[in-house]
């Protein structure tokens, strides 16, 4: 990938309030940088109440006005810094509506760390337009853009930002992270959730999609750390760039800047993987309510938390998945589950690798992955990106009971090889006792799922 059109933004106050974030050089003629507005929170005349306003805020809304600059990499190495001036702080209306719908108050969403400026959820849909005269180039133009409306779950994304903002751009400027589109919400997919790993300070950075003529900017990082209740979600929240441009057209127009149209659809190209395959290509995510009856559920003493539900009616067009019979540590995998935004926006997709295969007496009894798994994901499928086969069923993520921390990227799945012969037996006999063996397992399997292989105090996990 060519050097991304990203930068770091420095905000320096007269009496304090210094801060920084990432930014996106969207145009070189006129020279415009877009960043997230939360970094301006300490300077708002009206205080945090300003975030509730429906209209854009002019530079006069800040007191005192901070000194602004942007930091970019130089072609010959090193850094370049240019003075900037604020044009306006602009709220993205469609993103705000998607946030209100997708991130309900009952779920107690939080963003960033407690006490940090900019963690107010009302600041999330606000973005800042900066003019940087030193970047103006006669041959310049707008960066290559793409509409989030054409995104689909499971599609590859590349995120670019500067961790910790302007703290140490010599080391962190424009670092890249690869992930997938985990979920989508709002008009024209105004809200995009991705499992690309982003850190504080990358807010205002960009997400790119591959296309035949090079990467195109599709969204802007709104927040990197998301918490749902006490659980760290491990996903990054993006705002559609097309939605920001629509909300900003009036403000930019007053400054004599014409916003270009964003292509409604861009032909995607595959991002190289070990397999070169996309298990979600052409996949539909239609919602449906299916009635069924529970024919078996494991006992509380069983290490496997499994229930078998038989549907009352067949599903038209359903194609049974192929079932994996081997597991290769390090292979690329995906998880689908109703964690995070699931109840509102359907299942989310996260990607990672099969990090470990735990066997007892030579038989796999536990699979571990680096996919982000959240509360509500249990029972979802673990799918191989190499073959598209079903590898297992998600059981849980990891929680440290001593400190209450949850680790979504360390999780456990029941191998499908354990369930495959039991399902086949039930289909032959119709007898629920076909699954009774899940309640009668050896001590080695029990110890594995108790996350404790040796005698002693109970595991803290």
UniProtKB/TrEMBL annotation:
Its main location: other. It holds the Pfam family Trypsin_2. InterPro entries: Peptidase_S1_PA, Peptidase_S1_PA_chymotrypsin, TYSND1/DEG15. It comes from Hirundo rustica rustica. It comes from the Eukaryota. GO terms for biological process: protein processing; regulation of fatty acid beta-oxidation. The full-lengh TYSND1 is the active the proteolytic processing of PTS1- and PTS2-proteins and in self-cleavage, and intermolecular self-cleavage of TYSND1 down-regulates its protease activity. GO terms for cellular component: peroxisome. GO terms for molecular function: serine-type endopeptidase activity. The keyword NADP does not apply. It is found in: Peroxisome. Belongs to the peptidase S1B family. Its EC number is 3.4.21.-. Peroxisomal protease that mediates both the removal of the leader peptide from proteins containing a PTS2 target sequence and processes several PTS1-containing proteins. Catalyzes the processing of PTS1-proteins involved in the peroxisomal beta-oxidation of fatty acids. This is Peroxisomal leader peptide-processing protease. Keywords: Hydrolase, Peroxisome, Protease, Serine protease.
């Amino acid at each position: 990938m060519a050097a991304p059109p990203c930068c770091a933004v420095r905000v320096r106050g007269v009496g304090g309030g210094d801060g920084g974030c990432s930014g996106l050089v969207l145009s070189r003629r006129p020279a415009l940088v877009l960043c997230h507005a939360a970094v301006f929170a300490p300077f708002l005349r009206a205080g945090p109440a300003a975030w509730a306003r429906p209209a854009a805020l002019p530079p006069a809304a800040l007191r005192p006005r901070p000194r602004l600059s942007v930091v970019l990499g130089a072609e010959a190495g090193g850094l370049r810094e240019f003075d900037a001036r604020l044009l306006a702080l602009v709220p993205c209306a469609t993103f705000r509506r998607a946030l209100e719908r997708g991130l309900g108050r009952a779920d107690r969403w939080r963003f960033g760390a407690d006490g940090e400026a900019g963690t107010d959820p009302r600041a999330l849909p606000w973005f800042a337009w900066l003019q940087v005269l030193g970047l103006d180039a006669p041959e310049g133009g707008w960066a290559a853009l793409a509409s989030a409306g054409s995104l689909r779950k499971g599609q590859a994304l590349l995120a670019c930002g500067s961790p910790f903002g302007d703290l140490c751009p010599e080391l962190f400027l424009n670092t890249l992270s690869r992930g997938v589109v985990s979920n989508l919400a709002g008009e024209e997919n105004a809200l995009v959730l991705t499992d690309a790993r982003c850190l504080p300070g990358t807010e205002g950075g960009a997400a790119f999609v591959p296309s035949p003529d090079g990467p195109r900017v599709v969204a802007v990082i709104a927040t990197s750390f998301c918490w749902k209740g006490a659980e760290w979600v491990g996903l990054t929240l993006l705002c559609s760039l097309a939605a920001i441009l629509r909300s900003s057209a009036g403000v930019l127009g007053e400054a004599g800047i014409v916003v270009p149209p964003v292509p409604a659809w861009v032909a995607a190209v595959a991002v190289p993987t070990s397999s070169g395959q996309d298990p979600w290509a052409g996949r539909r995510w239609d919602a449906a309510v299916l009635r069924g009856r529970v024919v078996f559920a494991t006992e509380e003493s069983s290490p496997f938390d499994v229930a078998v539900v038989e549907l009352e009616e067949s599903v038209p067009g359903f194609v049974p998945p192929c079932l994996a019979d081997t597991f290769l540590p390090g292979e690329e995998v995906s998880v689908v589950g109703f964690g995070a935004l699931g109840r509102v926006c359907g299942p989310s997709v996260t990607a990672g690798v099969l990090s470990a295969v735990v066997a007892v007496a030579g038989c796999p009894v536990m699979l571990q992955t680096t996919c982000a798994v959240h509360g509500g994901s249990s029972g979802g499928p673990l799918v191989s990106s190499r073959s598209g086969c079903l590898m297992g069923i998600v059981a849980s993520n990891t929680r440290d009971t001593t400190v209450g921390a949850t680790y979504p990227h360390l999780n456990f799945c029941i191998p499908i090889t354990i369930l495959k012969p039991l399902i086949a037996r039930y289909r032959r006999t119709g007898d629920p006792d076909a699954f009774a063996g899940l309640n009668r397992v050896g001590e080695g399997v029990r110890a594995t799922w108790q996350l404790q292989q040796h005698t002693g105090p109970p595991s803290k996990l």
